[in-house]
UniProtKB/TrEMBL annotation:
Protein name (record): Saposin B-type domain-containing protein
Gene3D superfamilies associated with the record: Saposin-like
Signal peptide start-end: 1-19
Cited SUPFAM superfamilies: Saposin (SSF47862)
Annotated keywords: Disulfide bond, Signal
Membrane-spanning ranges: none
Source species: Diabrotica balteata (Banded cucumber beetle)
Residues in Saposin B-type domain copies: 22-98
Alphabetical list of InterPro entries matching this protein: Saposin-like, SaposinB_dom
């Protein structure tokens, strides 16, 4: 279920992107961070969120998979720890993805 939510969020971003590549990275990061924020609110442990994020990246096609693995997966713990006090947009700006 959680992986499905991650996939749905990122697939929507991938399908609706029509702007610049930087907009794509920013929108994808914000969606990813928002999904993690929801998991934090549901009190889902970090190790489970990391597993679900990895499973999601494994399902994504092409550039989206590469971006997920290279830029988002290494930051899951940082995002997880920050979303309680920082907005997804601010987190992605801090990660220099927006």
């Amino acid at each position: 279920m959680k992986t499905t939510l991650f996939l749905a969020v990122l697939a929507c971003v991938g399908l609706t992107v029509y702007g610049q590549k930087n907009d794509f990275f920013c929108d994808t990061c914000v969606s990813f961070a928002t999904a993690i924020q929801n998991f934090v609110k549901e009190e889902i442990p970090l190790d489970q969120v990391e597993k679900d994020a990895q499973a999601l990246c494994d399902l994504l096609p092409g550039d989206l998979k590469t971006f997920c693995e290279k830029d988002l997966l290494p930051e899951v713990e940082k995002i997880y720890n920050a979303v309680s006090s920082t907005s997804p947009q601010e987190i992605c700006q801090d990660l220099e993805l927006c």
